[in-house]
């Protein structure tokens, strides 16, 4: 495997941007790709620094793209940059122009932790025609509650008014309903530690998806909001992804 530390100019963000990319060392093919998203207090280096993702990806023959999105919640911010447009539109196009990555739906996946779990689910539920499977690890999945109960500077900058979130493109519960109505959902994976402060949010999202009969695999076990848990569970995610035979 090769590890690229990539700096480039983003037309969407209008600033220099960064991503780390893990790439199999094999010529003559386009690789299946996992967009692996960081949490609120992390950046594009965190997955490589805190886990053995390079080694795990090598065993699967999959490329991994890890972008930096700051504290944006993978959203076109009310007072800030258009990080949702960046990660959902510009980033995949740039990554495929720089590296031999497949554009086929069956070869594209997303996963993330905490804020990144929200981002991964948002990608899959917003663009079921682009992603075959998405996974959330300890995801911050209920932004409706988070915006109301933790109306911090971050939330104000991102969403401005929490009353605008329910039913919008930022609301995973609403996105899940739309996908369920279209019968086009990607495969969904969700896990959360039972001691995690986001555990109840995860339970609400799980029950919502099961009620909608979406193809969700849910797992829980003792665990907190920490890297030891995520290092274990990203291995489980890679085993779960439908990449065998690609």
UniProtKB/TrEMBL annotation:
A GO molecular function assigned to this protein is:
hydrolase activity
Pfam families cross-referenced by the UniProt entry: Esterase
Gene3D superfamilies membership: alpha/beta hydrolase
For whether the record's keyword set contains Hydrolase, the answer is: yes
Q: Does the keyword Iron apply?
A: no
Alphabetical keyword list: Hydrolase
InterPro entries for the chain:
AB_hydrolase_fold, Esterase-like, Mycobacterial_A85_antigen
Task: Tell me what this protein is called.
Answer: Alpha/beta hydrolase family protein
Organism encoding this protein: Cohnella silvisoli
């Amino acid at each position: 495997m090769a590890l690229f530390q990539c700096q480039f100019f983003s037309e969407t963000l209008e600033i220099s941007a960064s991503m780390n990319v893990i790439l199999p060392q094999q010529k003559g093919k386009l690789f299946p790709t996992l967009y692996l998203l960081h949490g609120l207090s992390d950046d594009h280096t965190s997955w490589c620094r805190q886990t053995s993702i390079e080694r795990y990806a090598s065993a699967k023959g999959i490329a991994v793209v890890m972008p930096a999105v700051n504290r944006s919640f993978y959203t076109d911010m009310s007072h800030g940059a258009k990080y949702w447009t960046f990660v959902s539109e510009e980033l995949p196009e740039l990554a495929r122009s720089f590296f031999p990555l497949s554009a086929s739906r069956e070869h594209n996946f997303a996963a993330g932790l905490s804020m990144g779990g929200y981002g991964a689910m948002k990608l899959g539920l917003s663009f079921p025609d682009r992603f075959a499977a998405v996974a959330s690890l300890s995801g911050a999945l209920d932004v409706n509650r988070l915006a109301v109960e933790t109306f911090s500077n971050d939330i104000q900058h991102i969403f401005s008014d929490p009353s605008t979130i329910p039913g919008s493109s930022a609301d995973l519960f609403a996105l899940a309903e739309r996908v369920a109505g279209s019968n086009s959902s990607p495969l969904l994976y969700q896990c959360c530690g039972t001691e995690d402060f986001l555990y109840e949010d995860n339970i609400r999202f799980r029950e919502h998806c099961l009620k909608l009969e979406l193809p969700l695999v849910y797992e829980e076990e003792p665990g907190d909001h920490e890297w030891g848990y995520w290092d274990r569970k990203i291995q489980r995610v890679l085993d779960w992804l439908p990449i065998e035979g690609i």
